[in-house]
Structure formats: C-alpha cells, structure tokens
C-alpha cells in the first residue's frame, strides 16, 4: 500500500507599495519579486524492510511487522533547509501522521533529524540524546521496565527530544542534554508548546500530548493517550 501527500507552501507576491513624494508630486512604485518556490512535503509509505526494524522489533511485540509502515517524508531542519526523514508507524495511523507533518511542514516547524530507531540499535536513550524524532520501538516505558510504551504499538511519536525533554518523578531531564529546555517560559525553535502548530495539529487528529502530564513528557504524542 502506498500513500502520497503533496503539501505546497505557496510564496505570495507582495503588494506593490506606493511611496508618495510630496515635493515632486509624483509616486514611485516598488514591486517585490515573488519568493522562490518552496519545496513541497512529499511522503511515500511502504511496508517496513527488516533492516528498518532491526532490534526495535522482537518476538512477543504487540504489533506484527506486517501491520507497520515506513513513512519517508520531507521536513524542515534547523538549518532552514528541507531534509528527508523516516518514521515507522502503525498502518492505522498513517493518514493522521501525514496530516500532522504536512501542517508542521507548511509552518516550517524545524525538526532536528528523523531516523528510524533501528539506526540507534533500538536505544531510546541514544535516539533522544541525538535529538531524533521517532515513532515505533518495541520497548518498555522509560523508568518503568514492567510496562510497554505506546511506541511498541507504533501509534506514538517523540518530536525533538532535546528541545522537548521527558521529565521523570525526580525532575530529571531525559535526555540530559535537554535540561536547558525544562524552562518552558521562553519559546525557542523546535519546542512544542501548548498552542503551537504541532500540538494543535495533533489535537485536531485526536492525539494526546504528554506535555500536559505530571510529570510532563514534552516530546511525546500518542493516539491512545499512553
């Protein structure tokens, strides 16, 4: 099965500005040229090759590999350029995921990097420290090894973990290099905020934001609230 989404962000042509020159009683008209065409979001969805799952999947996981999908899509980076990224998600959430990231792309919301967690050997700690946006990983909840994370179902996504850390009950930042972002009073690029474009897009899709939990998980969005 293949899904495609094209999301065009059209550059507007600025209105001509008339400058009045009272001394000469004439007008000078300045016309701005249109901005160059911005690259469009394009997404391609396929089944997941084994190497894109790696150690993120193992026997006993709640979702079999054939129910997962690899989503390859563009995203804006912190460098102001468009990059190609990949997420593995459950087949049932492909459409809302594409809508959310299409909205984020249109708003030029920056994403540091987007690689499947298999690139980190299945290590959520390494992926977070690298500020990697990711989805499926059949793993337990951070700090609670007896409970599976919603990421094991493929219907949860972590966005920019450094700018949006998870805070445990001791007040520790996960990842540690996200500590400076525990102060949420000053919005900075890549941060997920209560009424920001990413939060609103997920809310419209019916997903839940971990930033409203106590303690908060600012990077986490899930379809089922866990």
Q: Brief description of this entry?
A:
The protein is an alpha+beta fold and 226 residues long. It has 4 helices and 13 strands.
Structure, described:
- The structure is a single chain.
- The protein is α+β, with helices and mostly antiparallel strands and 226 residues long.
- Helix content is 14%, strand content 25%.
- It starts with a strand and ends with a strand.
- The strands form five sheets. It has a four-stranded antiparallel β-sheet with strand order 1-4-5-6, with helices on one face. The protein has a three-stranded antiparallel β-sheet with strand order 9-13-12, with helices on one face. Strands 2-3 form a two-stranded antiparallel sheet.
- It is globular and about 40 Å long.
Q: Which structural class best describes the helix and strand composition? A: alpha+beta
The percent range for helix content is 10-25%
Radius of gyration over all CA atoms, rounded: 21 Å
Helix-strand topology string: EEEEHEEHHEEEEEHEE
- Residues in β-strands, percent: 25-35%
In terms of quaternary structure, the protein is single chain
**Distance linking N and C termini:** 28 Å
Instruction: Give the low-confidence spans.
Output: 1-36
Strand order of the largest sheet: 1-4-5-6
How many strands, which pairing sense, and closed or not: the largest β-sheet? 4 strands, antiparallel
Shape verdict: globular
Give the mean pLDDT: 86
Q: Treating each run of at least 4 consecutive H or I residues as one helix, how many helices?
A: 4
Number of strands: 13
